Amino acid sequence: MNQNKIIIITAPSGAGKTTIVHYLLQKYPHQLSFSVSATTRPPRENEQNGKDYYFLNKEIFQQKIQQNQFVEWEMVYEGKYYGTLQAELERIWKTGKIPVLDIDVKGALHIQRRYPESSYSVFIQPPSVKELKNRLESRGTETLESLEARINKASYELSFKDHFNYTIVNNNLEDACREAEKIITAIVRG
Ligand code: 5GP
């Protein structure tokens, strides 16, 4: 029944997307599965290869682009590639689950265009760019340069919010999680 659906959770970095994705995966462990992206950025502390990302070097990533192995890929930041592998989606579909993609706005638009009938996209909107900056600063994972790049990108990405199937304004993370759950429940059961 769930065969070949795709759930896309997209947002500017720092909008609470990852927390919402984890919440949904924990609510629906038998129906949903995290789609592990490939990236050329280095792992952060606590990140595991094959669980958080497939950490690849640039040469291998570019080879996979040439071989058409990605359903979408983007150079998201600072020369770093991120992409969703066709094989990853196939792997999840085979288990009868729905892949949940935590990807940037451009990647989300590509997937939507590629799978117009079977993809469901949810845009998580931060309350404001100022609040987003506060969140990213307090997360403390970014250098000043990377923080600035993420804020600039966020302002641009916010302009695409009307392109997605659902929008959730994340004023309060708990409410946002519950709202996302309602949306996903309908998709899982539908
Ligand atoms: P981070 O470096 O913080 O893990 O991720 C940076 C951004 O890249 C986030 O917005 C994340 O959602 C996005 N991202 C992660 N995987 C993919 C992917 O496979 N494709 C695209 N287009 N973006 C991705």
Write the layout of secondary structure elements.
Blueprint: E1 6-10, H1 17-27, E2 32-34, E3 37-39, E4 53-55, H2 58-66, E5 70-77, E6 80-85, H3 86-94, E7 98-103, H4 105-114, E8 119-125, H5 129-139, H6 144-158, E9 166-169, H7 173-189
Parallel strand pairs: 1-7, 1-8, 2-7, 3-4, 8-9
Antiparallel strand pairs: 3-6, 5-6
Helix pairs in contact: 1-7, 5-6
Bound molecules: guanosine-5'-monophosphate.
Residues 13, 37, 41, 72, 74, 76, 82-84, 102-104, 107 line the site of guanosine-5'-monophosphate.
Which class in CATH terms?
Alpha Beta
The helicity comes to: 40-55%
- The helix/strand series, from N terminus to C terminus, equals EHEEEHEEHEHEHHEH
CATH topology: Rossmann fold
Q: How does the helix and strand content classify structurally?
A: alpha/beta
Side-by-side strand order of the widest sheet: 2-7-1-8-9
> Any idea how many domains?
1
Query: In the CATH hierarchy, what is the architecture at level 2?
Result: 3-Layer(aba) Sandwich
What characteristic shape results from the CA principal axes? globular
**Discrete helix count:** 7
Strand content: 15-25%
Identify the CATH homologous superfamily: P-loop containing nucleotide triphosphate hydrolases
